[in-house]
Amino acid sequence: MPDPTTAFIDPVLGVPTLSIICDVADPITRQPYSRDPRYIARKAEAYLKQTGIADTSFWGPEAEFFIFNDVKYHQDTNSAYYEVDSQEGWWNSGLGGRGGQIPPKRGYFPVPPTDTLQDIRSEMVLTLMQVGIPIEVHHHEVATAGQSEIGMRFATLTRMADNLLLYKYIIKNVARKNGLTATFMPKPLFGDNGSGMHCHQSLWNAGSNVFYSDSGYAQLSRHGQVLHRRPVEASRRPCWPCAHRQLTRTVAWCRASRRRSTWPIPSAIVRPSAASRSTPPAPRPSVWSSVRQTPPVTRTWPSQPC
């Protein structure tokens, strides 16, 4: 069933085309299909209100991606291979040319000419804003070979899930328009950072941020997400590279982000409506007392060489 509130003129097509996001309905009963991700997301928003903890949840995903100059892959009965390439890749430093390739894990975040993708990302940002998606920032990410990030402004759960689908659609098409390939693969390069999706979350009730407390930390993300971390991780890793890219190491909480919670596990290849609703904001207050109390993590990063 078309949702008229999501209609927009497709910005990547030459022929004027109206695009619209739809809900899935059972063809017999005409009721919402129980496994439709958008329906699940809306149910999660309704459940949040029923808990009395909050009436609104805001979500701000940071979906990372690579932009490659060349992509090759092949598979048949007895062989398989893939190869990706980028003019920024450090492995091209010995081939001559203008230099300026980015060493592994040193891509956060240079300015042009080392960052060769500034204008491409700006075009992506302008196209996203054209369809009503507010953008806050874009920059090169940590990895070599064109890893990038564009930061969308937060929105409610279902709306942000729709925005993330458009985000991926527009980024891939703008890249293709410029003779490049954008991918949200979790781990396309060996020996360098993969692409994840930090997801900032906050809960609000009657216009007040319930993640904040005058006495310090309001305990919600600490008790909800840390308590349920194992099933959440399982539901938000749809392929084996997701799991291998970021296996569970240490789960902790920090006072520095007490006005919101940041959950770094998923990759942007997940289904956003389903992945978002699987991140529990908090258990009911009766559960809090059963959670083992742990002190916050405070870390001072060592100085890095210039």
Question: What does this 3D model show about the protein?
Answer:
- The chain has 306 residues and is α+β, with helices and mostly antiparallel strands.
- It is 26% helix and 21% strand.
- The protein contains 8 helices and 14 strands.
- Strands 3, 6, 7, 8, 9, 10, 11 and 14 form an 8-stranded antiparallel β-sheet that branches. A two-stranded antiparallel sheet has the order 1-2. A two-stranded antiparallel sheet has the order 4-5.
- A hairpin with an 8-residue loop joins strand 1 and strand 2 (18-19).
- Helix 1 (37-51) runs antiparallel to helix 3 (157-177).
- The longest helix is centred in the middle third of the chain and has 21 residues, at 157-177.
- The termini are far apart.
- Residues 280-290 have low confidence and may be disordered.
Secondary structure layout plus pairing:
Elements: E1 8-9, E2 18-19, H1 37-51, E3 56-68, E4 70-75, E5 80-85, H2 118-130, E6 135-140, E7 147-152, E8 155-156, H3 157-177, E9 181-183, E10 197-205, E11 208-209, E12 212-213, E13 216-217, H4 220-227, H5 229-235, H6 240-245, E14 261-263, H7 272-277, H8 285-288
Antiparallel strand pairs: 1-2, 3-7, 3-8, 3-9, 3-10, 4-5, 6-7, 10-11, 10-14, 12-13
